[in-house]
Amino acid sequence: MKNKAKNVVNYIIFAGITTMVFLTVVIIPFLYGVYLTLTDWNGIEATKKYVGIRNYISILNDSTFLYSFTLTLKYVFFSVLFINLIAFLLAYLLTSGIKGQNVFRIALFTPNLIGGIVLGFIWQFIFNNTLPYIGQKIGLGLISNSWLASPQKAFWALVIVTVWQYSGYMMMIYIAGLVGIPQDIIEASTIDGAGQLTRITKIILPLLAPSFTVSVFLSLQRSFMVYDLNLALTKGGPFRSTELVSMHVYSEAFLSQNYGIGQAKAIILFITVAIITSIQVYLSKKAEVEA
Amino acid sequence: MSKKVYKDYIKFFTVLLISLLYILPFIAVIINSFKTTNDIMANPLSLPTKFSVSNYVKAAEKMTYLRGFLNTLIITFFSIGGIVVFSAMTAYLFVRKKWKLNRLVFSLMIASMIIPFQAIMIPLVKIYGTLNLLNNMWTLIYMYWGFGAAFAVFMYHGFIKGIPYELEEAAYVEGATEFQTFWKVVFPLLKPVTTTIVILDGLWIWNDFLLPSLILISAEKRTLQLSTFYFYGTYTADYGLAMAALILTITPIIIVYLILQKNIINGILKGAIK
To answer: Which of A49, A97, A227, B173 could serve as a FRET partner for B238 with CA atoms 20 to 30 Å apart?
Structure first.
């Protein structure tokens, strides 16, 4: 019995605060959030009515949400694709022993250290002022008007800045993977007469599978959740045409005061990301084993 | 042989070109931060005609830079301090005592790591708003403890598992309590993980925008990211000032990066690969 009491005291000393903050900041709000999606609460009135799954059904008919959701999927697809392509290319070049590779690595990694708000504003200036100026000077129609003023081009502007922001980070993950490949395997393949392309596709890529798993997972997660960059670069505009899901949830809850519906949309986002990343991790782990 | 040299040149210039593209936006902002708004409008590519820091002085004053900097520093410092101390102790208990409760809380923490912040923010604001705890730096710090706990406990847990128990046993023989043993014997050994956590959480909290924007309402409590955001919104037309403000905001991080680049890159990699 005395032992039991001692255990309780030990738990409180060592894990008491962590347990309390974890429960009150993460678990309780999350569970309460799930409950909120079943109500019609507007954030102001004290009373809220239980409405069952009506919020979820109304979301399925909400064309702004469906637009934002589809746009996010498209944005995630292109961002993840280009982040990883460029990151791999850079990592490959920067492990081939060229001059100054450390300086290049450090430079390319820099955008990743800066918050999305500042990055968004920097590029807003580039897209609104610098590029149109160059475009008008040299007569290049593609950039002579601000990309952020057109819904189509503003979307690509977002993708470009996202790729710029994260490819340096993912490059580091690929570099760590490439450095870990035993040099004798590469040499053996060269002696066997493998060309550069065969070497990349048959030997380096399969051995690099774990790096792909990590890097695709991280880029998926980050691009699904993007908010700061979206806010600073396009503010969702022009005319809500580049409002990605996070920003949509934010405006539904905090600007339109539809807390129940906003939270239901957040839960849908959560489930989508959980499913997509689990499938990705499952598939890439399988590929790792086969490789 | 010369074919290889030739190839290396192509590789070198490809990388050089891409790196320049990566760095150009920063250079454009730096150059324009020394120019007047009229000069920027006339030609955003021209070099400043005379060197003047007046944009910086004005921007720092209008965005209450020093205030924002101190607020961010305090919030980041206490958030990280709490995360490190509480999570290390928790992980230690979870590794050394295989109680049911410990396993339950630990699994809950691991599971919670897939919940994105966006799925918590609405009820979070509602609950802490009802309790009248918003617009308070300590509430924000408290929340960072909560959001940082799962990952930090997970990292420490993995590391402590590899520490041989014999080291602690020696301390117990000498009559030390568990609390003393942890701080004297175990915590110093955790330095590599602590470094990783300090770097990862430091970057996250220093650069975070969404959570502080929901919690901190009054202007004098704003972090650097918040004051940059509001400042830029108000002075979008005054490009010279806006550019100087952006440079002011990123300077502290860049300085730290230049000093600690190896540690920062390693820390981020370790966090990613887990």
So the answer is: A227
